[in-house]
Amino acid sequence: MIKIAKEFKPESVFMGRLEKGADIVSSLEEFCAERGIKAAWINLLGALDKATISYYDQEKHQYFHRELTGDYEIISCSGNISLKDGKPFAHLHIVLSDTEYSAIGGHLWPNTVSVFAAEFAIFKLEGDTGAEDLVRCPDVETGLALW
Ligand code: ZN
After folding, report:
1. What would the mean pLDDT of 51-59 be, rounded to a whole number?
2. Cα(107) to centroid of ligand 1, in Å?
3. Cα–Cα dist 74/36, whole Å
4. Which of 39, 81, 88, 138 is the most exposed place for a label (fewest CB within 10 A)?
5. Ligand 1: centre distance to CA 76 (Å)
6. Residue 128 has what pLDDT?
7. What pLDDT, on a 0 to 100 scale, did the predictor assign at position 129?
8. Which string of DSSP letters, residue by residue, matches 50-109?
């Protein structure tokens, strides 16, 4: 059963590159805030030398983190932008590969990344006129901020 679904139409696509050393989550949130982007789909690829990835313990309702440093390819980083506390909030997951070509992945934590190079596409979405924005609110059942 579907809990929530809102209809959006693609408005425009921003393609670009992050500065070397930039953080992924905060850079994209900042860009979306400047451009008034309240809903979007994001894809990104490239390489990084530092990141913290996480998983959510569903019983404890708590994130556990792993810090990574070294040469990693960003195989895929995708997620979305919606509103949380009135500001654009990026929810991103990432799959990285190491020097052994092994993949590791998880929820991408903000202000933990240093990219070597990263190319992104932000698919800006617009809701129907008068439609409510997609907003994250505390969800008691999961302990997460969900739509
Ligand atoms: Zn997540």
Report:
1. 98
2. 4
3. 27
4. 138
5. 14
6. 67
7. 60
8. EEEEEEEETTTTEEEEEEEEEEEEEEEEEEEEEEETTEEEEEEEEEEE-TT--EEEEEEP
